[in-house]
Amino acid sequence: MKSIWTFEDVNLFGMLCPHKFKEYKKTHSLNSYKKEDFIYFEKDSANKVYLIENGKVKIGHYTEEGDEVVKAILSKGELFGEKAILGEESRNEFAMSIDNKTSICPVGIETMHNLMRDNRTLSFKVYKLIGFRIRKLERRLELIMFKDAETRVSEFLKELADEYGYCCPNTGDTIIKHPYTQKDIAHLIGTSRPTFNSIMNKLKELGQIDFSRNEIRLKISA
């Protein structure tokens, strides 16, 4: 069970951040953000991609009614703003730090294209990542639009198991160590935090799961 958001065992930050390269290092710096600081807004120029050195970043947009729709919550080692690689000229989403110590490596789109041109394997993996992310977002929006809250929770637990889970050798249970808060997950599946908590507690009472702050156990007996 391995995350589709990272390049298998490849260190994205080490491979792509200009701060790591002698020819860029002197003129490059990392950007720091506190909780609720925006990294970019909707309609901003899409002239960079970003790598997360530390912290967490929320990607989303606002509806015409002003409601926030969360598309993804990303953490250390992950890439965002990647649609600029495909030629996007202005952002159709916002990116916000949701951690008090978020550190971001910005990569100019020209630099990114140079890195990809010089490394075909890296280029393939970047495009593969973009494809995965698009399909994942489509699946999540489909669930929000057509499925009830309990189904959305169940499907998200399966998604977490695929990305962060491993099998406990003693019990056969699936252990999920994930980076999300309950509020994060509620936003991602389009429900309220109390509703999410209620469903999780119900699953726990049924003996299907157990959970703590950043760990969920899917019981094999379920």
UniProtKB/TrEMBL annotation:
PROSITE patterns per the UniProt record, alphabetical: CNMP_BINDING_3, HTH_CRP_2
One Gene Ontology term, aspect cellular component: cytosol
Residue ranges annotated for the HTH crp-type domain, each copy included: 147-222
CDD domains, per database record: CAP_ED
A GO term for molecular function: DNA-binding transcription factor activity
Family matches, as InterPro entries: cNMP-bd_dom, cNMP-bd_dom_sf, Env_Response_Regulators, HTH_CRP, RmlC-like_jellyroll, WH-like_DNA-bd_sf, WH_DNA-bd_sf
Keyword Transcription in annotation: yes
Pfam families: cNMP_binding, HTH_Crp_2
Coiled-coil ranges (or none): none
Domain Cyclic nucleotide-binding: 12-91
Keywords: DNA-binding, Transcription, Transcription regulation
PANTHER family referenced in this protein's UniProt entry, alphabetically: CRP FAMILY TRANSCRIPTIONAL REGULATORY PROTEIN, HTH-TYPE TRANSCRIPTIONAL REGULATOR ARCR
Name of this protein: Crp/Fnr family transcriptional regulator
Organism: Patiriisocius marinus
